[in-house]
């Protein structure tokens, strides 16, 4: 695969990680934290609505991110779930106004992955250390939030299966793009939790005696679900070490905004 996740682009002060390629016709990006209107701990392109920032600032930041990506549908065509560290997947399979409204309502009730098989709808999930995953396939895509609880439940693999069901694609036809997240060398956890991951995902889950490699676990889940290892691309960026570009809940002791994974397909 090409290294599109190492390319930076954007506009209007917003920086996007993800290049300008459109795999399977999907425009996707991981946002950086500069270019928004938020101040203080949320400075400046905070896209999360549940971390204490002014709601008007969040809305303007989301508008700017969508504009930088070239999405013309606006905030009314944006699906942003209330993330609950579970494994519920919302599927968007029609793009008329009523269907989009229903999808937004279901997502607001709680979900950690959105599968979309239609054009003219954008999907955004927010992060500050957890693992962002964008899956693309012919005729569809998914955006996934995989924290440690969701990773244990293999939410990325569940989203892949749902994407293939809804789009008619086979797992080997899909691609996965893993965004910036807390990487193994920075993610110290309890011995008990680490042993749970090793028992479920094998020795690759263990970055060191007390450090968990969530990204490796996500990759393992996807490969076990039929996605070729060669079809998975990552950024190699650990959020606690890059707080000039991304938010990190752990490094900033909980006082921070959220960057996002965003995707859409044009009609």
TrEMBL record:
It catalyses: S-methyl-5'-thioadenosine + phosphate = 5-(methylsulfanyl)-alpha-D-ribose 1-phosphate + adenine; adenosine + H2O + H(+) = inosine + NH4(+); inosine + phosphate = alpha-D-ribose 1-phosphate + hypoxanthine; adenosine + phosphate = alpha-D-ribose 1-phosphate + adenine. Keywords: Hydrolase, Metal-binding, Transferase, Zinc. InterPro entries: Cu_polyphenol_OxRdtase, Cu_polyphenol_OxRdtase_sf, Cytotoxic_necrot_fac-like_cat. The keyword NAD does not apply. One of its GO terms (molecular function) is hydrolase activity. Purine nucleoside enzyme that catalyzes the phosphorolysis of adenosine and inosine nucleosides, yielding D-ribose 1-phosphate and the respective free bases, adenine and hypoxanthine. Also catalyzes the phosphorolysis of S-methyl-5'-thioadenosine into adenine and S-methyl-5-thio-alpha-D-ribose 1-phosphate. Also has adenosine deaminase activity. Belongs to the purine nucleoside phosphorylase YfiH/LACC1 family. This is YfiH family protein. The lineage of its organism: Bacteria, Bacillati, Actinomycetota, Coriobacteriia, Coriobacteriales.
């Amino acid at each position: 695969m090409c290294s599109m996740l190492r390319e930076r682009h954007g506009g209007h002060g917003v920086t996007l990680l993800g290049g300008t390629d459109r795999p399977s016709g999907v425009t996707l990006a991981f946002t950086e934290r500069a270019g928004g209107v938020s101040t203080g701990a949320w400075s400046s392109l905070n896209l999360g609505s549940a971390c204490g920032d002014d709601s008007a600032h969040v809305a303007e930041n989301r508008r700017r991110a969508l504009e930088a990506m070239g999405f013309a549908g606006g905030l009314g065509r944006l699906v942003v779930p209330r993330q609950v560290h579970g494994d519920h997947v919302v599927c968007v399979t029609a793009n008329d106004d009523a269907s989009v409204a229903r999808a937004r309502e279901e997502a607001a009730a709680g979900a950690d992955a959105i599968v979309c098989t239609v054009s003219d709808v954008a999907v955004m999930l927010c992060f500050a250390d957890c693992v962002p995953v964008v899956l693309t396939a012919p005729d569809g895509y998914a955006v996934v939030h995989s924290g440690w609880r969701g990773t244990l439940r293999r939410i990325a693999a569940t989203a892949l299966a749902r994407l293939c069901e809804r789009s008619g694609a086979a797992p080997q036809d899909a691609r996965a793009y893993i965004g910036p997240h807390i990487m193994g060398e920075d993610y110290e956890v309890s011995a008990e939790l680490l042993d749970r991951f090793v028992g479920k995902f094998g020795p690759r889950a263990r970055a060191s005696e007390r450090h968990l490699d969530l990204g490796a676990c996500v990759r393992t889940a996807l490969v076990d679900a039929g996605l070729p290892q060669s079809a998975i691309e990552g950024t190699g960026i650990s959020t606690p070490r890059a707080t000039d570009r991304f938010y990190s809940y752990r490094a900033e002791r909980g006082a921070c905004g959220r960057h996002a994974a965003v995707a859409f397909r044009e009609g």
